[in-house]
């Protein structure tokens, strides 16, 4: 049903317009919670303990979909065990000019150059406060980034401002230094810049777990350096990976991809690279470092592959666009059918 609707209706709409319609529906979905919740119940065997919280399953929604913390409850009802909101920045900002979100249907992929469009960290505070009061809510991650108008040399103060506001309302905090759509941001992954940034955020976050989100385009030495740094600073984990600037091995024509222009690529083309990065992190990370794997997830089998490769939690985003509102519920059912039992299943 959804695939028919996607192919005959949604594909005819501008990608961002379709996203906005979905956002509106998710904001009103909690009205139907008494009906929806029992129908989309997550199997108990998937319960997973990580980052000091209990997750209904290991599968959640990556940052970028709910940019302003407006859809947390609705997304939880659909079966996402955790929702990572944002990216939120100190200053409200409109993001890059439209069009800035593009479907590559043949590749089950997206290219985006949204540019951290959001209403700002302060505006998210009352929404997060309300979401935290909801019964049976998903685990809430908050993803923070640098404002576009903030010079790179002032990035630490920018991140600390958002941390001080949002960490008390988050179950975990994700430090985004890996989006390709904010000038200078990926340069913060260099260890000389990353260490003081993560140290300041860690100190400002108090007891809230802090993770760093990295790009898939780093080389092996850079990844190893960040793993070592995260362990040395006592961070709670690493999220791997963000979108890629690569355009390799796409079925969409090179001319069509070139016409779209710059932006981060997400979806199925990231499967191989995100799995490679996960395995490299797992090989050198201490056991207490939580790893969240992101990139190219479509099925329960994909999630299981990440868990077996060492991920503690798994996130998706692009698959939600192509698979529809029952996607997370279907993944949870498939994961249970494959015999996965979370480490909190008996609790």
UniProtKB/TrEMBL annotation:
Alphabetized Gene3D superfamilies for the sequence: Aldolase class I
Cofactor: FMN
Example GO BP: 'de novo' UMP biosynthetic process
PROSITE patterns: DHODEHASE_1, DHODEHASE_2
Pathways per UniProt: Pyrimidine metabolism; UMP biosynthesis via de novo pathway; orotate from (S)-dihydroorotate (quinone route): step 1/1
Domain (Dihydroorotate dehydrogenase catalytic) ranges: 46-337
Record bears the keyword Membrane: yes
SUPFAM superfamilies, alphabetized: FMN-linked oxidoreductases (SSF51395)
Job description of the protein: Catalyzes the conversion of dihydroorotate to orotate with quinone as electron acceptor.
The name this protein goes by in its record: Dihydroorotate dehydrogenase (quinone)
Origin species: Canibacter oris
Lineage, highest ranks first: Bacteria, Bacillati, Actinomycetota, Actinomycetes, Micrococcales
